Amino acid sequence: MTDTQVREKTPVDFWFDPLCPWAWMTSRWMLEVEKVRDVEVRWHVMSLAVLNENKLDELPERYRELLGPKGWAPVRVVVAAQQKFGDEVTGKLYTALGTKIHNEDRGATREVIADALAEVGLPAELLAYADSDEYDQVLRDSHNDGIERVGQEVGTPVISVPGADGDEVAFFGPVVTPTPRGEAAARLWDGTLLVASTPGFYEIKRTRTQGPSFE
């Protein structure tokens, strides 16, 4: 490769809900993978509120509260920002929101959303979309685009990447904590693609023994 040649990066499509701490961990891992593999993350929204809207009665009360109006607010604002200012703001706003919601343990309050908008230079007026359904169909379409690649039995995150043979490889997760970095991030990426691209492979799982560690 000459100095004038640029290696084409593999697109990695990543669906997230800003509320989910495990998706947040995985998203930080993907940013590490970008540093050590020729990939480029493209950010998309999905919604735990949409995923669970027909089974709220089956969920514990704390989840019903989380997935009510409070659960719609941050992802609605992300969608509105994306629609008005382009895809390039999606990842930046997600990073600002996630840092405040999860790392700083401030929760998905209106104040947090306003602070995140200010941090990335987006207008404060976007906060009004936290209570607006104007872009809900866009949100649902994006959600369905991601979830239909892996099935209804999973949540967020969803990752999709072109496989070695050109066919799509899509999967939920991985669920991991703390965020692998450097070569550890690369090994997890390579291994995840290996198992996910194996025909007929569906699941590896073990009981979580710790919560997300936002180191």
Could you describe the 3D structure shown?
The chain has about 220 residues and is α+β, with helices and mostly antiparallel strands. It is built from 8 helices and 4 strands. It has helices at about 20-35, 50, 60-65, 70-85, 90-105, 110-120, 135-145, 185-195; strands at about 10-15, 40-45, 160, 170. A 4-stranded mixed β-sheet has the order 2-1-3-4. Residues about 1-5 have low confidence and may be disordered. Pfam families: Rv2466c-like (PF22234).
Jot down its keywords:
215 residues, alpha+beta, four-stranded mixed sheet, 8 helices, globular
Protein topology:
Blueprint (H helix, E strand, L loop, with lengths): L9 E7 L4 H16 L2 E7 L2 H5 L8 H6 L2 H17 L2 H16 L6 H10 L16 H12 L10 E5 L5 E5 L10 H14 L19
Parallel strand pairs: 1-2
Antiparallel strand pairs: 1-3, 3-4
Helix pairs in contact: 1-8, 4-5, 5-6
